[in-house]
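Bumping with the actual sequence this time:
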Amino acid sequence: MSRLFRGVFIVWVMLRHGLDELVLTSFNKPWLLQIARIITIGRKLEAPRGQRIRQALESLGPIFVKFGQVLSTRRDLLPVDIADELALLQDRVPPFPSEVAIAIIEKAFKKKVDDIFVSFERQPVASASIAQVHFAVLKERSGRHRDVAVKVLRPGMLDVIDKDLDLLRMMAGWLESLSEDGKRLKPREVVAEFDKYLHDELDLVREASSAAQLRRNMAELDLVLIPEIFWDYCMPDVMVMERMKGVPINQIERLRAAGVDIPKLARDGVTIFFTQVFRDGFFHADMHPGNIQVSLDPATFGRYISLDFGIVGTLTEVDKEYLAQNFTAFFRRDYKRVAELHIESGWVPATTRVDELEAAVRTVCEPYFDRPLKELSLGMVLMRLFQTSRRFQVEIQPQLVLLQKTLLNIEGLGRQLDPDLDLWNTAKPFLEKWMMNQIGPKKLFDELRNEGPRYAKLLPELPRLLFDFLQNNSRGRGNGLEALLLEQKKTNRLLSAIVFGGVGFVLGLIVMQVMVRVRLF
């Protein structure tokens, strides 16, 4: 019954904001347009369509708001006005009572709050759809007191999320069955990804482990601070971490007055993003201004502070190499290579003509080169690329949705910090260095070192294996081969040939692999 009532409420919200009229008019059929005119009689639907969709999602609650945020990154099919409106969606969720938060903490640790913390601020410092955060002072076993932030999961979220996800899956199935464009959008796969991200956010131990991994990855970069996790005080619904003190990154005038080098800060943000993506394949995927601060502490002055690790993205080695090659080809204006990569990866049909796709990509990208960031919208470039991809039936990859979203976040931060930042020239040296590390001598030696134990075990067995093979194949052919093998045994030439031949074979395989990468690069 609860799902039925929820479904009725969703239908009521859609009718209230006139989304039924938008659906009917999208088919551009005369008889459907006539029906749309009839059903809108008596309803005031003067607001733009993008605004109506955004307001409907906000009325439906935080789960639909989050889904709209994810959907806003899919500009391959969404019109510009709708995508821009969905990008404005924010979690406007009032905090739940502090007594409830305290009860959750005490239940998780089976202790009174006063036995865990020297002090605990009842008023939350931040509240979102999934959790809220309180500042506190932790009692450590060593006797030290540490300033901490306590993140507490909003109660009853799992049931709400599962019910809404069931409805989203049903709606995604409808969308997929309506048109070919609906199939290209892959709504069911997007909902599946969304399901994964939401359930990951519901496990604060998982978030803590993501924060710890990012902290290790970024330790040697000296550009970003990640809070320390207090593992003794981490449970699925409560997480205690180091309290970070900084200035929100969107308070630019305050940062400038404090002496922060704003252009350097913008360049550092690009470096952090590309390091996490291409070096580690593990990146903070929710880098909006609310989650990014800047340290003014003398010991860490001017460094980024990252917060909220509920959503992180991962890339495989194949994903990283493909993306790096695409970026590098773009920076070099090698549009033919971009077209070839799309065909080789299977993103476009194998029958696609390289020259036609090359010309289309050139038409989109060429006007935007050599422009400062204030004159360049990466979102606009992506939108035009997706519009072009529609013509060539490009299959959009759901695993890259988070990366696209984060890239747009980075553009927004860069535009705020330094409108004159040249994103292309800032990122190009990093990517070229990364690519050289993938195909250069260091990569060769790394692969030899990694594969060494395996081949070290195999090489001593090669003489016996080869001898058995030759002996089995020589049966019925006389004793000439056996005599030859005996002679070679005496001179030890066979063993030498096998050992050096095996080593040469292994090196040959690695060299061939490197040559393939060079050709692709």
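The tokens above came from a reply further down the thread. The chain is about 60% helix and 10% strand.
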